[in-house]
Here is the input.
Amino acid sequence: FLHLDGAVEYSSVLLLNRSVKGNDILVSPNPARDHVNLVFNKTKAGTVNLQLIDVSGKIILEKSAMLSIGNQTVQMNGLDKIASGTYMIRINDGGIITIKKIMINR
Here is the structure.
């Protein structure tokens, strides 16, 4: 902060924890341009299947990843080849299906 008398005061540095708990899934950046990261907690090692779906229900992009237990990040690339708009990401984690909304902006 800069005070009226010219003195400078600094704020504390904070550490942000991007880990997730339970069934939460963090999608960032959202809106996205060329890629999106999905961060989630795996309770069991195994394959996660991701599908990017448009508003008509058409699958635009698919990705599978074999992941271990714990907080994991999966990146979906290639969004720069997709038209701007609203999409859904369908995450299938061993039969547990989660849908997240994402915006793609140019």
Notes: The chain is about 0% helix and 50% strand. Confidence is low (pLDDT under 50) at residues 15-22.
